[in-house]
Amino acid sequence: MPAVSKGDGMRGLAVFISDIRNCKSKEAEIKRINKELANIRSKFKGDKALDGYSKKKYVCKLLFIFLLGHDIDFGHMEAVNLLSSNKYTEKQIGYLFISVLVNSNSDLISLINNAIKNDLSSRNPTFMNLALHCIANVGSREMAEAFAAEVPRILVAGDTMDSVKQSAALCLLRLNRTSPDLVLMGEWTARVVHLLNDQHLGVVTAATSLITTLAQKSPEDFKTSVSLAVARLSRIVSSASTDLQDYTYYFVAAPWLSVKLLRLLQCYPPPEDGAIRGRLTECLETILNKAQEPPKSKKVQHSNAKNAVLFEAISLIIHHDSEPTLLVRACNQLGQFLQHRETNLRYLALESMCTLASSEFSHEAVKTHIETVINALKSERDVSVRQRAVDLLYAMCDRSNAKQIVAEMLSYLETADYSIREEIVLKVAILAEKYAVDYTWYVDTILNLIRFAGDYVSDEVWYRVIQIVINRDEVQGYAAKTVFEALQAPACHENLVKVGGYILGEFGNLIAGDSRSSPLIQFDLLHSKFHLCSVPTRALLLSAYIKFINLFPEVKGTIQEVLRSDSQLRNADVELQQRAVEYLRLSSIASTDILATVLEEMPPFPERESSILAKLKRKKGPGNLHPDLDENRKERSANGGTADHSSTTSNAKSSPLSFVGDLLAPASTAPPTNRPRPVSSSYLLQAPLTPIPLQASAVPVLLSAGPLFQVAASPTPSTDLLGLGSTITTQNSAPPASKGTSLLVDVFSENIAAFPVETPVAVGPVADENFSRFVCKNNGVLYENQLLQIGLKSEFRQNLGRMYVFFGNKTSTQFMNFAASVVCQDTLQAQLNVHAKPADPTVDGGAQLQQILNIECMSDFVDAPVLNIQFRYGGTLQNVAVKLPITLNKFFQPTEMTSQDFFQRWKQLGAPQQEVQKIFKAKHSMDTEVTKAKIMGFGAALLDGVDPNPSNFVGAGVIHTKTTQVGCLLRLEPNTQAQMYRLTLRTSRDTVSQRLCDLLSEQF
Amino acid sequence: MIGGLFIYNHKGEVLISRVYRDDIGRNAVDAFRVNVIHARQQVRSPVTNIARTSFFHVKRSNIWLAAVTKQNVNAAMVFEFLYKMCDVMTAYFGKISEENIKNNFVLIYELLDEILDFGYPQNSETGALKTFITQTGIKSQSKEEQSQITSQVTGQIGWRREGIKYRRNELFLDVLESVNLLMSPQGQVLSAHVSGRVVMKSYLSGMPECKFGMNDKIVIDKQGKGGGNGCQSIAIDDCTFHQCVRLSKFDAERSISFIPPDGECELMRYRTTKDIILPFRVIPLVREVGRTKLEVKVVIKSNFKPSLLAQKIEVRIPTPLNTSGVQVICMKGKAKYKASENAIVWKIKRMAGMKESQISAEIELLPTNDKKKWARPPISMNFEVPFAPSGLKVRYLKVFEPKLNYSDHDVIKWVRYIGRSGIYETRC
After folding, report:
1. Contact criterion met (CB < 8 Å) for A41 and B42
2. A34 to chain B nearest CA, in Å?
3. Alpha-carbon distances of A370 from A405, B123, B241, rounded to whole Å
4. Which residues of B touch A41 (CB under 8 A)?
């Protein structure tokens, strides 16, 4: 409790407090408090008057209960009553309660103000002090309104006691802080300034605080304080330590006042009057000299006080920035502190040096300490000191030492504390950019940065690298080479992958000449990182891939394969899926010209302020960081700065920052991840831009046939095909194929018996006798002679197919040097892609060899590929060539539709070249079921009840090729009497119509 | 799986600490103290999650019991275990207090070793535990006894040992209910439910097979008109049984049959919400006379058979926070203003059914500068009545012991009904 005179001990309060302290639980405490509150309420009930002592006691208890965290909603009146007491202790408790508990909108405020007014005019210094303290403690706007005029009067009145003046000055300071508009100094200014000359040092100290605050607000009015402050300072500095008696603290004369005066002087530029200026310089020199003197005491308080004055003096020197000798001396003094064993001193020295480094006079002097600072960075135990060291290195960096400093910071980064890594990364990035002489060094530095501390490299940093690389032609090749090399590391950070993806996507062609970094290798390298990356990075990589398609047409197939895979086209992430679908379509539809235009190299970025610098500023907040310092100081000098000072700062700002200032684009306007956006998918489908003329006619079919379109949007991925290869019966996703096979079993078994047995020939012609049997089915024996039987099993889905070729050795001897290859003649090569997996070179007697062929239909075709087989049987070389039954109809997908739809489309395909009709004689019996099975085996959906004549057959489907989908409608009209058929086919493409008609007519 | 179990006193000092699993470190002890016991705000949730560790606590007077786990356990299981733990401790050394825990810490560790194994709850039946964990020091048991204990603990009926013999076969059945009510000032029931327990204390020889019957609506309806003795049936909302009850039989025919543990056990727990007999009706009358005075009149009416006597009646009338004085007049019992609890407490020792009693109080208020109105908390009541407010009746409890030749008639049975107040509140 506050000082209570003896015999006035308030026993009740002490008992209450000890009761509370002895409570075993919270509940017990609440009970005790409730009891006490009820007691106080009954006492305050008002029917009997309380004496001052008990009032004070109960108010005190209420205050205590309030401070324990309970609500108090009564007793205010009693507290206000206490204010008018004549006893100091009662008044004191009253004021205490008021300043803690009374809120500004209370009804009692007028009573309180009245009591305060009385006390202020009481001439009793203790009462005046209590009142002033209360005003300052409450400090509300209401208080300011009521007393803003009163307090300055007390402050400057001639007959006021020193202690009251002190309180008044501080009270005014507080009011000035809370509501500056109400405190008008006007007429009092000169007299307040003269308080600096007061005899009483306490008054001077309080007044200095007040004047400093006021001077910051209106520097002109208080300009006269400079000379007084300098005079006062010099008196203190030059005084013997014993002169000031009460104000000497551990042999240092009035340290607090000195510090405050030095702060006050920092509000103003160096004094213009030579004499004052000389006196100030003298003071500062004395302070610096004193720092060199041996300490007068071993106590820590002595050195603390001395150093406080010293550091404040140094910051004044830095602020004035006009006395080179002082600056250098300050710098040297700080240099000594750099190795001081006191951590706080090292911290402060580094901090002050940071500001010194930005002064042109002391910059060189600071640079001499670079080794010490680097050493501090390495050996310092305290992380905050290390951070200051980083700041200082950043501040002292210039063109001459940039390489050294950046290298040191990079090496420190590996061991740096996690909390400051990001900041260091930003600083390194800025320095590397600012002082880059050649950009290869810059690229190296940033890549190292990503390698060492990839997690802390914010987006801005790597955006910046890309901006610079794109804007500087001369580094592009080097950058591409470097990222390519960096990416070869087994584990690299995602940011590196981003940079790598972007740069290779743009400039991969610059290094493609080297066989070690050929397009395919570049792509494989990027793609090897793909699966480990997050979604935004993957999105960026997809963009890089599409750029690759433009840069290197030779890898188009590989990339399309990747884009087509399920993990892309059916990715759960909508962004990735969209990109994959759109890029895939773009790459397969657009001509190279269009691709080149769409995927052109990025134009140079507009040059703005560095986004990294902005980020660093945001991170540290204004006023903390040294790039900001320039601005800060400019502000300060604007308050009363001299011309030469502001010119130096602006010079300093413009020269090193010129490059930074002009190169930058904010990341937000152009985040590289999103830039190479493709046209949207709907645009692709509707735009007349499609370069293939037939595409235009295919589009309406696709659009009108809902299910077809879905199919088109999600082409079958190869992984599904693999699954089908092993289990043919589970072909739910490919109903026509399975239906076809089951229905065709009978036909197939018939045919097997009818296979002609051919005599072996050394070099035979291309065998195609069984070819037509495979038009409507997928499995069976393709070829057989005395030595060899070739069986087929195939699966087709959309434009992809897989064929299992079984070579059966019918002899008992081994076939040697067995080789089977597929040849696509001339035009077919571009239309059909057949890839044969290598098979064993030997086939044992009686054994079977399986070879897998992967087929991709690029566009519609007529010819069939040829399977060439070579093997050595008993020393003679055998050659067999068989036409592989890969026909256009294999890429048929059936489409179900209603009669109405069918005829609508039929009419849409009415152009003369789109229709092909053929009338032919039946070669087999005209059994309805067999015909149905054949049409379904052909791949089209058999539509029942579409044709008005029930004996006619109607089918519909879509031919899938890689480039286009062709909708097909067919109609077969049998004439049983004449044993004739009429077959009509309408497709969106004349060649397709013709080919399908030829194929199908052979079957009946 | 419980990772560890700690017992704290009210200051947060650890009295008992038993860690069962390696994933619970020593710092978990402090985490609970800092975040729950010494928390700035009172922690009301019984489950607290601190740094991926879950703490389940129950408080018994000033003692905190906390079970700790890092896994995703069944919280209901953990609490059931904690309550069981409390029961076991009470059965061994009476009230759970800091002093008792300190005096019996060896026993508690012994118990904890037995009832929790690697964090999995084991046999926590007091009767069974008492056969091999004793407070009377080590008594070397014969081989025979030891093997008996083993076979019992690991056997099918872990809660009862064989070969129990009593000269007098006796059985006590207590139906303990607590009735909860919230009533509007106009006398409208806003919510009411009864939660009850059937506690059985048996001193029966051998392995008796018991069958318990009550006036459960489903059973009565099933027996249909055959019984037709006018017995009122009750609808039980939900019930749980002691582990000795054969649940399959209950599910199939809703009959409660079991082999009881020796001594005391809680046979079943249940809850009803329909047709509750409210033993008391509270009629409040509050009148504010100006800003400084409040007049309160409360009438209580007992609403049961005049032959029955309610006991330990206590009515708690909250007073405003700015009460500065209270005058009370009551006809019956004693009433007093308790400042520490901000309430007038009116106590009546005994009251017969169908009676009425009233209290009137004059409360003086101190004017405050706070504009908040008094929230008028509800008037709450405590009592004890010798019947079951849910209407539950024990119809029979049959005992069969096929091996020893005593029959159902030889067993002396006692049934007692006690209805207590739970949260029994009336708004005013």
Report:
1. no
2. 5
3. 9, 73, 81
4. 322-324, 366
From A587's Cα to the closest Cα of chain B, the distance in A is 50
Q: How confident is the model at residue A586 (pLDDT cuts 50, 70, 90)?
A: confident
> Residue A557 is encoded by which pair of tokens?
């197939």
Does the annotation flag B338 for ligand binding?
yes
Instruction: Quote the mean pLDDT of chain B.
Output: 88
Task: Nearest by CB to A74, from B342, B364, B368: name it.
Answer: B368
How many Å apart are CA A793 and CA A801, to the nearest integer?
11
pLDDT at A319 over 70: yes
The candidate with the shortest Cα–Cα distance to A66, out of A58, A149, A323, B403, is A58
Predicted confidence at residue B355, as pLDDT, reads 92
Residue in A24, A41, A107 nearest the CB of B322: A41
Closest CA to A438 of A491, A479, A467, A410: A479
Chain B residue closest in CA terms to A43: B324
| Distance (Å, whole) CA A43 – CA A770 | 118
Contact B324 A106 (CB under 8 A): no
User: Which residues of chain B are within 8 Å of residue A42 when distances are taken between CB atoms?
Assistant: 324-325
Q: Is the pLDDT of residue B314 over 90?
A: yes
Distance separating alpha carbons of residues B131 and B149, to the nearest angstrom? 8
The whole-chain average pLDDT of chain A stands at 77
- Tell me how far CA of residue A69 lies from CA of A41, B65, B120, B372, B416, in angstroms: 18, 28, 43, 18, 49
Pick from A555-559, A629-633, A770-774, B398-402: least confident: A629-633
pLDDT computed for residue B417 by the predictor: 94
Residues A803, A886 contacting (CB under 8 angstroms): yes
Question: Could you report the per-residue pLDDT of A758-798, keeping only the tens digit for each?
Answer: 434 444 567 777 777 777 778 888 888 878 888 888 888 77
Distance from CA of A60 to the nearest CA of B (A): 18
- Look at residue A725 in the predicted model and tell me its pLDDT: 34
Least confident range of A607-616, B50-59, B250-259, B336-345: A607-616
Model pLDDT, residue A640: 40
Longest Cα pair distance anywhere in chain B, in angstroms? 82
Chain A residues with CB-CB distance to B366 below 8 A: 41, 44-45, 74
Q: Is B349 annotated as a binding residue?
A: yes
Write the residue in A39, A74, A107 that is nearest to B322 by C-beta.
Answer: A74
Option in B42, B322, B340 nearest A32 (CB): B340
B370-389 pLDDT, tens digit each = 667 788 899 999 999 999 99
Q: Which of A58, A73, A101 to mutate to test the interface with B (most CBs of B within 10 A)?
A: A73
Cβ distance B204 to B410 under 8 Å?
no
**pLDDT of A930-988, one tens digit each?**
788 887 788 778 777 777 777 888 888 888 888 778 888 888 888 887 788 888 888 88
Exposed, middle or buried: residue A246 (CB in 10 Å: 0-12, 13-18, 19+)? exposed
DSSP string, A776-817: S-S-EEEEEBSSEEEEEEEEEETTEEEEEEEEEE-SSSPEEE
User: Å from B341 to nearest chain A CA?
Assistant: 6
Q: In percent, how much of chain A has pLDDT > 90?
A: 7
pTM above 0.95, yes or no: no
Residues A751, A775: Cα–Cα separation, whole Å: 13
Question: Which residues of A belong to the annotated binding site?
Answer: 11-12, 43, 53, 57-61
What is the model's pLDDT at position B139?
55
Q: Which of B369, B370, B374 to mutate to test the interface with A (most CBs of A within 10 A)?
A: B369
Strand B343-352 to strand B356-365: parallel, antiparallel, or no bridges (unpaired)? unpaired
To the nearest whole Å, the CA of B344 is away from the closest chain A CA by 13
For B363, nearest residue in chain A (alpha carbons): A42
**Residue A560: how many other CB atoms lie within 10 Å:** 18
